[in-house]
Specification:
The structure holds 2 protein chains of 2 kinds.
Chain A (H helix, E strand, L loop, with lengths): L4 E3 L2 E4 L5 E6 L6 E7 L6 E7 L2 E5 L7 E4 L6 E5 L8 E8 L7 E2 L3 E5 L1
Parallel strand pairs in A: 2-11
Antiparallel strand pairs in A: 1-3, 3-8, 4-5, 4-9, 5-6, 7-8, 9-10, 9-11
Chain B lengths: L3 E3 L4 E4 L4 E7 L7 E6 L5 E7 L4 E3 L2 E6 L4 E6 L8 E9 L2 E7 L3 E6 L1
Parallel strand pairs in B: 2-11
Antiparallel strand pairs in B: 1-3, 3-8, 4-5, 4-9, 6-7, 7-8, 9-10, 9-11
The chains are: A mainly beta, B mainly beta.
Chain lengths: 113, 111
């Protein structure tokens, strides 16, 4: 499978714990995006990378959230001191430079108890 | 005001019916428009881009009305497999990398 992959697919954690998610984009794609989707809503933009550079962050990305893409390939999204309001599906997408279409991964569903 | 607004539905239609969804967007400078399909608990997948001249792909037709700031999706001869949530997507005017998604319109096609 050469699509976008995300790990883990599901994560249940207790409030106050830290969690980290991983995204592996399609190999030739140099742009990588993180979105968050809550029940009944469309995905909301969180941040995006071009290669290893994080070029934009949403106001939704509070200081408890950090994303990295150290070598311009896979990316990690860490949430520190999780809150119940962080419960959502976290979607990663990638695209080619100059390409508009984004290809989404299957998402990581986070449940904060 | 939300960037993109859609009727959440659900639209319950029989097989073979024609169904249409509209979506409005708030920023008149938006440049790129798409319909994505999302099955329950799955990731969104691109259904079709929406061009100024309108475009058709099999049973699906998408149209853009810039004057009224809405896009539409028409599905003809609905199939059971068309049951999904349809997400309207708009690019930010000066940033092709940032998508604004509507909350989606749920379609249920019944036998």
């Amino acid at each position: 499978d050469t699509g976008v992959s995300q790990d883990p697919r599901h994560k249940i954690t207790k409030r106050g714990q830290n969690v980290t998610f991983r995204c592996d984009p399609i190999s030739e794609h140099n742009r990588l995006y993180w979105y968050r989707q809550t029940l009944g809503q469309g995905p909301e933009f969180l941040t995006y990378f071009q290669n290893e550079a994080q070029l934009e962050k949403s106001r939704l990305l509070s200081d408890r959230f950090s994303a990295e893409r150290p070598k311009g390939s896979f990316s990690t999204l860490e949430i520190q001191r999780t809150e119940q309001g962080d419960s959502a599906m976290y979607l990663c997408a990638s695209s080619q430079a100059g390409g508009i279409e984004k290809f989404f991964g299957p998402g990581t569903r986070l449940t904060v108890l | 005001r939300k960037e993109v607004e859609q009727d959440p539905g659900p639209f319950n239609v029989p097989e073979g019916a024609t169904v249409a969804f509209n979506c409005t967007y708030s920023n008149s400078a938006s440049q790129s428009f798409f319909w994505y399909r999302q099955d329950c608990r799955k990731e969104p997948k691109l259904l079709m881009s929406v061009y100024s001249s309108g475009n058709e792909d099999g049973r699906f037709t998408a149209q853009l009305n810039r004057a009224s700031q809405y896009i539409s999706l028409l599905i003809r001869d609905s199939k059971l497999s068309d049951s999904a949530t349809y997400l309207c997507v708009v690019n930010t005017p000066n940033n092709f990398n940032k998508f604004y998604f509507g909350s989606g319109t749920k379609l249920n096609v019944k036998p």
